[in-house]
Amino acid sequence: MKPPDLHRPGQCQVANDVISLVGDKWSVLVVSKLGQGRMRFSELKRAVEGISQKMLTTTLRGLERDGYVSRTVYPTVPPRVDYELTELGAELLEPVAALGQWAVSNHARVLSARRSYDERTG
Questions:
Q1: CA–CA dist 108, 51 (Å, integer)
Q2: Which helix (H) or strand (E) holds 8?
Q3: Strands of 80-85's sheet, edge to edge?
């Protein structure tokens, strides 16, 4: 299957602008977790293994800024904050899931290619 032509003037810039955020590992994991439903910050922190509080905050802000995630603050003491995918974020789940499935399916091939490369260049 031939990939779409992204080399028309301005298309690479447009694609890179969107992919730069959603292509990082934390954003992909956060979007995947929020695909299961609305979550509080602490729930997300526990669900996304290895992410620091600072990185989760940064990731959520970026996803909110780009319209993938909505943030709802409830006026309680302490304040309760929920995060959930927007319609745009929910649409992102399909390609994220496809990429994740592709990565799992091809992990052994990638490891083999790395070993081969390391042996050649070693």
A1: 25
A2: none
A3: 39-40, 80-85, 69-74
